[in-house]
Design brief:
The structure holds two protein chains of two kinds. Chain A is mostly helical. Chain A is 80% helix and 0% strand. Chain B has 16 helices and six strands. Classes of the chains: A mainly alpha, B mainly alpha.
């Protein structure tokens, strides 16, 4: 911790030390600024490079993992689709698909065709909603997932961090209650949380509707009543997500804040007689930064949580689409969804990394050197 | 080692978690002794029977002895039984909507008290009529009201019920007994009763019995997946942390890759590709283990990095010990506590992963054994959550949460022992 403090000090000291070299302060400032932006640019390029590599790895995994599994995908597929029809017909269908899907080509050719198609946004056609393109299905359900996930992460992150910091600061009674509750909440799987809220608030109390994204009788439009309907259906999935986010964030923030509260600068500030509230502000700021990285690592978990919350509330997002792809054996749709979800997570992590570099002075400092 | 064990037993968090797990495991082992038989036997013909004690009507009519009891509340309770709260609400709805007849004024919501049965019945007898055909009322509703009305007719009659039995010789019904309103049987003397504390599920199976065996199965799957994940993570972490250099770079690249790619999505992809036929419980456990090792690998790696240049390790190196020997004898003991902690977390995430996979229909395909996830899946598929059959899924969620809570508590307790800064007070 002390090491990090010195970096902060160095950063703060730099402009003060430099004027000894008889340079204009203004010029100096722009020099620092320029080096930071240059360093930032290099950092950005490095992260972008990493993003491209991970994207490539994700596409390859999505392509090769199912092919590593035993069994011939087409015959399994046909066996599922055409159970009961006569053997000759099945054989001819298999042959037809074999050529249509280009399976006679060597694997690497198939792989490059696949990558080419993915880059063009062509993920094939869905079986269950033939001939609708997979990308079309995904894009139509994406807004619901994003609308559910992003605000819930924000609200849950803020509430969780405040609770965690307070628990770390107060210790004693509040912490004794908070920690077990948070641990218990993180133990509840996403679908469990959703289903408990559904049972209590939708089925028993009838405060909110039990499923869907808007009233069944309505047609999506830009009207006030439709918006209210959307909002009414939004509550329960949203709060399940928030509760889930709070539990995990609070635990992480609590341990971070306890580390920070034991740091030397806190003791020093106390001896200086600085008000407790102000110290808590410092601690919160310092402990919050790692929590942003933590958020980047948890994005995947949050997203899969959102998928399950959607399934429970039959909210028409990616999760419900995934579920129907599984139950209808729609391989192109499922494969497209997994790829899309992985790409989405990678991009979100990338954006958070950049955001982190912008808000954390320590990272900025390391970029100047 | 001994002092560490002592510390562990003193950690209240660890012990709470440990005792919880112990109680659950003990229950799983002991319960089948008292309630033997196949947990997946379909005993109920019908879906989602409520929790409670089921008494055979046939056997209760054939008991040796009936008792006469005069209970003061009996008549009132009987009205409740004959006219449920839903029935009373239907009556009120009818009265408000159609109560206005020729010569009789309409009623408002406030005028009808569904808790006061006598007043409600008085209003009902005054207003209800079958003479007038009401337009716009669907047949189902009309029949429902008629059924309620016929029940209302006989509500205060406590007349005796005559029991008849078919005589195959004469081909006639013969009276063999009379049941009066004050007759009681002792439930212990009824030949067939069954207590279903959590009712039955959609297939008519005893939920509690199924839950106990499912918890056992899920714990075993969690252990298998946890062991696999720990072995892979430990191996990779040791190699990467100890060897450093190019091996570390390559392994670190793989770790970073699997950290950002959500494990659950990989799990879905692999499980779907394996296909239903091959997806047994063991396969699913292995797949979960194979996709969730990365956190163990990372934490082991960072620990090993700090150990790599310790004197005793260097000494071992100079003495010409082989790589596996150094890793096992000089490095592994120092990271044992972290590995145990990581293992506990792995088991907990594996149980959650199994439940999640089964929820979307990618769980183990088996008809012989229930798992927690499969129970959730069945309950969801049959809409238990929409018809208010809470007993089919809420206990399952609570068991999952409790197991995972207990494991997390054990982990936090250990963390506080090995990281003194986190300790309270």
């Amino acid at each position: 911790m002390s090491e990090q403090n010195t970096t902060i000090d160095q950063l703060n000291d730099q402009p003060n030390e430099q004027p000894n070299d008889n340079e204009q302060p203004g010029e100096q400032k722009s020099f620092v600024k320029r080096t930071i932006s240059h360093g930032f640019f290099k950092f950005f390029v490095r992260r972008l490079f990493w993003l491209v590599i991970t994207l490539f790895a994700a596409v390859s995994l999505n392509f090769f993992l199912p092919r590593l599994m035993p069994g011939d995908p087409i015959s399994t597929l046909i066996a599922r689709l055409a159970a009961g029809t006569d053997a000759e017909l099945i054989r001819r269908t298999i042959e037809h698909f074999y050529y249509q899907f280009g399976l006679y080509q060597p694997v690497y050719v198939q792989f490059f065709t696949y990558i080419g198609n993915v880059i063009q946004g062509d993920l094939g056609q869905s079986f269950s909603q033939f001939p609708r393109p997979v990308s079309d299905i995904i894009l139509s359900s994406l807004p619901y997932t994003l609308a559910l996930m992003i605000p819930a992460i924000f609200v849950g992150w803020i509430l969780g961090n405040v609770l965690g910091a307070v628990a770390a600061y107060v210790r004693k009674g509040f912490d004794k209650i908070m920690l077990p509750i948070s641990l218990f909440i993180t133990g509840i799987p996403a679908f469990g949380m959703a289903i408990i809220l559904l049972t209590v608030f939708a089925v028993n109390l009838s405060w909110f509707p039990a499923g869907g994204a808007y009233p069944v009788v309505m047609i999506p439009s830009w009207s006030w009543s439709f918006f209210m309907g959307l909002l009414q259906h939004y509550h329960l999935p949203f709060w399940s997500m928030v509760l889930l986010a709070i539990g995990g964030q609070a635990i992480g923030m609590r341990s971070m804040s306890i580390y920070e509260l034991n740091a030397d600068y806190v003791k020093y500030s106390r001896y200086m007689g600085i008000k407790d509230r102000k110290i808590v502000g410092y601690v919160f700021r310092n402990a919050m930064l790692p929590q942003v990285t933590g958020l980047a690592l948890q994005i995947g978990t949050f997203l899969s949580g959102a998928l399950f919350v959607e399934i429970v509330f039959s909210y028409p997002g990616l999760g419900t689409t995934l579920m129907s792809a599984v139950s209808q054996n729609d391989y192109p749709l499922l494969s497209g969804l997994t790829l899309f979800i992985i790409i989405m997570v990678l991009v979100m992590v990338f954006l958070l990394d950049i955001f982190y570099a912008i808000i954390d002075p320590r990272v900025k400092a390391s970029l100047v050197e | 080692m001994k002092s560490q064990l002592k510390q562990i037993t003193r950690s209240s968090k660890f012990m709470t978690g440990f005792i919880l797990i112990f109680v659950i495991v003990a229950f799983i082992l002991i319960y089948p002794l008292f309630n033997p038989g196949n947990p997946l036997e379909m005993i109920g013909l019908g879906t989602f029977f409520r929790p409670g004690t089921y008494v055979s009507v046939y056997d209760s009519l054939n008991v040796q002895r009936t008792y006469t009891l005069r209970l003061p509340e009996a008549a009132a309770n009987r009205i409740d039984g004959k006219l449920s709260y839903d029935d009373r609400e239907s009556m009120r709805d009818w009265l408000i909507r159609y109560g206005e007849q020729e010569g009789v004024a309409g009623l408002t919501y406030e005028e009808i008290d569904t808790y006061d049965v006598h007043a409600l019945l008085a209003l009902w007898w005054e207003h209800y009529t079958t003479d007038v055909f009401i337009e716009g009322m669907i047949t189902a509703d009309r029949r429902l009201v008629a059924r309620i009305d016929s029940r209302v007719e006989r509500i205060f009659e406590d007349s005796d019920i005559i029991l008849m039995m078919y005589n195959y010789e004469t081909g006639e019904y013969e009276e063999f007994g009379v049941v009066t309103a004050t007759d009681y049987v002792n439930i212990r003397e009824v030949a067939n009763t069954i207590w279903l504390p959590l009712g039955t599920d959609n297939f008519g199976r005893d939920v509690l019995k199924q839950l106990v065996s499912a918890t056992g199965a899920s714990l075993i799957m969690g252990l298998i997946a946890g062991v696999i994940a720990t072995i892979i993570g430990l191996t990779f972490g040791l190699l990467s942390g100890y060897l450093g250099g190019i091996v570390d770079d390559i392994l670190m690249f793989i770790f970073n890759l699997f950290t950002v790619i959500p494990g659950f999505i990989l799990l879905v992809l692999i499980s779907f590709a394996i296909g239903q036929e091959q997806r047994g419980m063991l396969t699913v456990a292995i797949v979960i283990g194979v996709t969730s090792w990365v956190w163990t690998a990372r934490s082991v790696r960072s620990q090993v990095m700090s150990l790599r240049n310790r004197d005793h390790v260097n000494l071992s190196k100079l003495s010409g010990h082989s790589l596996p020997k150094i890793l096992v004898r000089d490095v592994a003991p120092y990271i044992a506590s972290y590995v145990v902690m990581a293992f506990i977390l792995q088991v907990s995430t594996a149980i959650l992963a199994e439940a999640a996979l089964s929820m979307i229909g990618l769980g183990p395909m088996t008809t012989e054994q229930a798992t927690l996830g499969l129970m959730m899946n069945w309950a969801m598929n049959f809409g238990a959550h929409l018809i208010g059959a809470w007993w089919a899924y809420i206990p399952v969620v609570l068991v999952i949460a409790t197991v995972s809570f207990a494991l997390n508590l054990m982990n936090t307790g250990l963390d506080q022992i090995f990281n003194p800064q986190l300790r309270e007070g």
